[in-house]
Structure formats: structure tokens, C-alpha cells
Predict the 3D structure of the following.
Amino acid sequence: MKGRLARWGWSLFAWGLILLVAAPLVWMVATSLKPEDEVFSLEPALLPEEPTLEHYATLLTETGFAGYFANSATIATATTVVVVGLAVLGAFSLARFRYRGRETIASAVLLCYMLPSVVLIIPLYLMMVKLGLANTIASLVIAYTSFALPYALWLLRTFMAAIPAEIEQAALIDGASRMGAFFDVLLPQALPGIISTALFTFILAWNEYLFALVLVNADDVRPLTTGVMTMLVSGFNIEWSLLMAASVMMSVPLIIILAFLQGYLVKGFGAGAVKG
Amino acid sequence: MASIAFEGLTKRFGTTDVVRGIDLAVPSGAFLSLLGPSGCGKSTLLRMLAGLEDPSEGRILFDGEVVNDVPPGRRDIAMVFQSYALYPHMTVAQNIAYPLRKRGVKRAERDAAVARVAAMLQLDALLARRPRELSGGQQQRVALGRALVRDPRIFLLDEPLSNLDATLRSLMRSELVALHRRIGRTMVYVTHDQLEAMTMSTHVAVIDGGVLQQFGSPADVYRRPANRMVAGFIGTPAMAFLDGVVAAGRLLVAGEVVAATGAADGAVTVGVRAEDVTIGDGGIAARVSHVEAVGHETLVTLEGGFGRVTARAAADCALVPGDAAAWAARAERLHLFDDRSGVRLDAPCSPVRGPTPRDEQHDG
């Protein structure tokens, strides 16, 4: 009796949490489908009475939304490729090779991760200006790499360290080269970790706002986050309908990716949690 | 096929010597067991043979050629790991074919070789499965198959049977021996199980604390253990060690003369194996402390002023703990060790002739 009551209690609690998280999202989708007059109706309704896609059409045809979207996609993809490429090799070294200063490097990486990224904005901006990269997509890719890489290294190192070294050694004896053993044996084993690292990096780069605001000031290289804000939110007016439609479209890629790779993500974070 | 030799082989991790100056050589086609308690350095020795660890000092020779700097893949060896180390994302067939693939063997040839090995190890029905879908015994056979497929000159086996249950273990033991006889390749087998070493090998190297304690045939190691460590490690139940004294060519234990010996006067350690002890009317007085009926025989532990010995008695032995008993050991089978260094004293013992031991003692 008591057990059943407790279970009911927990269920209620869980559903309450879900409602709390999901409500704004539901509101966002609903609003994006409402005609302008319904949005500002004095008797707000949850569901649109006459659903419309006009805001989506407006966004795609009459604004720079598509451009921002392309920029975001480029930045997030490039960052992910760079970070995962470097982190896989770096983590392999940190997990498998014995050399002087290995632990120091690993700790330094963690320390970098703990540094609040806000303190890096001004130095990074000045560096980008010196390098002639200010207002470029590359500047954002570099900036995002600087704070995604430490975490990626740490996550992948933990992941790789948990894979028994003996299967690589078996591959070495079976005639594989060091890199051969890495590609044939370690990489397939580390795939869940690599995928979750890639997801993490992609989401981070896709959602980032502060660096994009500071480092990029030209409209043709702005990503979605800052682009949508400057376009639709001004001191006088907020284009709520368009903003909500833009938000929905921004979320779609992430939702699609997560839906497919959710299993890997959970696995990867689990591995990271076991060992620090 | 290849002979193997270690010359002054030493491995240091930091300041710890894991393997210390090991010298030994086995001929081509030998079945060498590296036997010792866990942490004795036997696995490190095997890993140096495989090329997975570099020796700190000394040389490793295959067929008289130094292989210290030859990478594992070029040593023409195969290894079976204790954990089997199968490639989890590959099927059984892909696992077995991997060494061939890495050596550029053509697909058709590879498939034929896999089929041949699979038939030999009865893996035919499992070729499409992945390692996690197999039982421990099946995984072990896949690991063996991956080693066999290439026909290397040396096989290295790192406690390959330790994860199997008792029945399967004894089955695989005889299969491995049969395999060795059939293919005639040099095999190096690491184990902490003296029974495995004794039953399978042509050569046994007993290692403790990174030092080679004794190297010889299984019979040698059993009959003439080089020191107390080897004597105590080999044989079940373990050899009993008693304090003894040698005086004027007589060996005394607890004041009783037990044998005539050529050893020099002084304190010695006397080693007694259970099968050499007989419980009867005459001999050293003791009390039964423990009786273990094993089925085909009964192990009787006796305690007294001399210490403690175990005797192999008949299955129908009626002794119970607390009974008084007297025991004697076959004099020519006693082992004498230096009481301080534990090194075997090469002085044969023999039965005392003429007067009974008790009279002898009065004379002495």
C-alpha cells in the first residue's frame, strides 16, 4: 500500500517536472503557429484557433534567417570536426602512452575547462583582431574549440582508458601497426564516446551566444543566436511570432540529432561519470 | 618452430625489479610453463617475450637471434590472453581472420584458413556471432583459434584456462597438450596452477619475486625441489616443513632419529610430502588434528612437538581428530633444506639400519 502510494507520488513529481520543462516549448510551438492577432489576444488560448505557417514563410523569404542558419550550421559542423579530430588523437595519447608530464597535461586540460569562458572573451577578441580574423566564421570556430576541446579531451580520455589495453596489444601481436590497432580496434570501441563528444560540441557551438555577440559584428557571418536577436528584438519592439517560429526552426536540427543519437549520449555521459 | 633463450633478463618498473636477471633456454618444440604465485613476474616475462614490454636489461633470443628490438607483429608469435582480448565489434570469423588480414593474405585463402581452424576447434556454428554472445569456453576457443590460424613459430599463453570452470579446464588442458603434440610448436604457458604446469609441460620454470627459482622437467621440480619456495609451491597437499638437527650422520626430528644422512652437523629444515608419511605404531608420536576425506583417499593432519605434517591415508582410514597416532616417513624421500637460506642440501637420506631409532638415540 505504502509502496504504491510512493510510486504514485514519484510519478506525479516526474510528470510535474516534465510539464515544467515542456510548457515553454509547447507555448513556443503554439505561438509560432498563431496569426498575429491571436498572439496578442486578451484571452490567450493554448492552441491556435486558425493555425498558420505564415511566420515561417516570412522568416525564410523576407529575412536573413536562412543565411544565419547556414552560418550556424557551418560553425557548429566545423567546430565539431576540429574538436573531435584533435580530442580523439589527444585522448589516445593521454590514455595509452607513457611519457613524462602526461598527468600534468591531463590536469592542465581540466584546469582549462574550469576557467570561466567569460574571462577569455577580451583576450580572444584582441587575438582575433591581431590575426585578422575578427568578424569571420573562423574566429568563432577557434573560440568554441578553445572551450569545447578540454572537455572533449577529458571525456574521451576517460572513455578510452576504460577500454582494455589488451585488445590493442592483441592487435599488435596479430600484426597491426600502432595506428592500425588504433583504427581497427580502439576506434570502434570508443565510438559511443566519440559520438557523444561530437554531440556535446555541436550543441555547444549551435547554442553559443556570448562569444558570437562579441567576436562577430558583421551581419553576413552572424550565427542564428545573435542573428535572430538583432533582427527581431529591438528596444522598441519584439516580433514575437517570428521569434517563436525562428526558435522552433533553431531547435529542429538538435531535436533530430538527439532523437537518433540519444542512446550514445547517455552512454558517453555515463562513462564520464564513473571516473574523474 | 623456434628455440627460446633469456639472457640476464631484467625488468624494472620505476625502482621495483619485477623480473631479475633470468637466464634460461628451451629447445624448439618445448612446452615451457612459467609457474609462480601471482605477482611473481611471470606475466611480465611473457609480455617481454611478446614484445609488449621492453626489457630493462638482458636479451631475448629466438633461434639464436636477438629479438629485443623486433616489434610484436614481426616476432612471428601468437598470444592467448587471460582475458582472451577478443575484438568485441568483430564476429568470430573476423576475429580469427584478423591476423591474416593484417598480413595481406587474400580473402579466399583467409576464408579457407578460418574454416580449417573453426572445424578443428568446433567453432563452425559460431562464426557469425560476436564475442559477447559466446560462453567463456567458446571465447577461449576463439582466442585459441586466432592464435592457431597463422601457424606462428611460438605460442604464448597467459593463464588461458583460469576463467573456465573446473570440468572445462581439465578438458582444455588435455586438448592443449594434444594440440602441442600435433603441431609441435614451441609453447610458453604462464600459470599459477602447479597442476597445469606439472601435467602439460616439458619444461617448468618456477619463478618467485622476479627470480628464477628452478628450471627443469616437471619430475625434477617435484622430486628435487631446489629450495623451500619450490618445494612448498609444488604438490598438493603442500610439503610439510619441520625443524630438524643433523648430528653425527643422523637426522633427528623432535628428538627422534628419522634417517641417516650425509649432511653436515647443524640445524636443517626437513621437508616431508604427504605420500611419504605412513601412520602406524612406531615413529614420532602425534595427535590427529584434522581429517579430510577426499573420496579415493583421506588426508590426515598430525600435530605434535615436531610441528605439523599431513599424511595420505587410505580412504577407509578410521582416525578422528583427537586420536593419538605415530608416524614415520620414508627416509630416502625426505628433503633437506638449509634452515636459513632454504636452499636444498644435496645430501641423500637413507633408512637407519640395525638398531631401532630409539636405541640409536641413546647411543648417540
